[in-house]
Design a protein that fits this description.
Helix content: under 10%
Number of strands: 25
Distance between the termini: 71 Å
Shape: globular
Amino acid sequence: MFASWTGRAARAQQAATIARAAEPFVGDIGGARLGQLTEGASFAAGPSRANHTQITLEGWVFRASLQSVNREGHTLAVNRTPIENLRDAPNGRVLAQLVHGFLLDEVERRGQWVKVRRSVWVQTAALRGDGGRRPAAAGNPAPAASPPPAASRQLPIVVAAPPTANRQPPVAVTAPPVSPPSAIRPSPPRSASQDSPAAADPRRAVVRRRMQLYRAPDSTAIGQLEAGTPVRITARAGDWVRVEAQAWVRENEIRPSDAGILTGLSAAELRGAPEEFKGKLLRWTIQFLSLQTADELRSDFRPGQRYILARGPAPEYAFVYITVPADKLADVQRLEPLASVTVVARVINGRSAYLANPILELVELP
């Protein structure tokens, strides 16, 4: 019985590597998405059920991005919006990205960094175990490796490596057949086009598998693209790319967009290319939080300038600042906190100086 128990425990604690880029994870199977995992990152894997495997996130987070809590049995929460990185060491490689409010437990502290840990669930199909295999479900040992193919009938030539402390086994190299002298002919000259194939366009890509489409990074899915669909990359924001795909819809299902006003632009795109969108108009649906007055500490505003503190654009949950001209102040003062409102605004700065939040100027408030 003891041997059986230890065997199950060893399988439950095997290491698993993330085999897909930007793979989402959840706190409970069927629950809300709490972040995404980096392809190639390795974690301790636990039990599997319902096509999901439990893994243990463990890594380092910048101390200023955490706050102390006592919630659901955890002691820390991510307070940076919209996401924070989990790293394998202080300032090390990114293992995962955690959403604002994600709950964690502290393991240790080192200067301005905190080592944290939490168990989450990820789709089993997104994992591979040591040796390149997906981790076996509890109680089902991994299949044995296939035997190597039979040896070739040709005699090998053994190339012996010089003796070293970590000597590798001899390499068997099959000798190619020797042609008679009369059969040797000079090779025809190669053209420049054969030696230098045309470089692939980095803006063109193909969908690897059926995937979800999102209006903005880490937001709610709005559709799907089938595997093999050609797409064109139009913008990048961290681990995300904005794509265009060719498709057909019925004409009576769409309407013309307003000339000169950008729609569908995410806050992540704006932060990723602030100079590209400076001075342009956009239409965003935001959640109004409050009307604020700038003080001397806010270098992005004039002292005394009035601005809207909001979250958005929907469905994103990032902070947005919108300066209010004097002629729009009375309309803004009538807004109720947490009201959802669609505005037309001009981009002043895609990234504020300290918090990297977009700063806009209110142009139209319905």
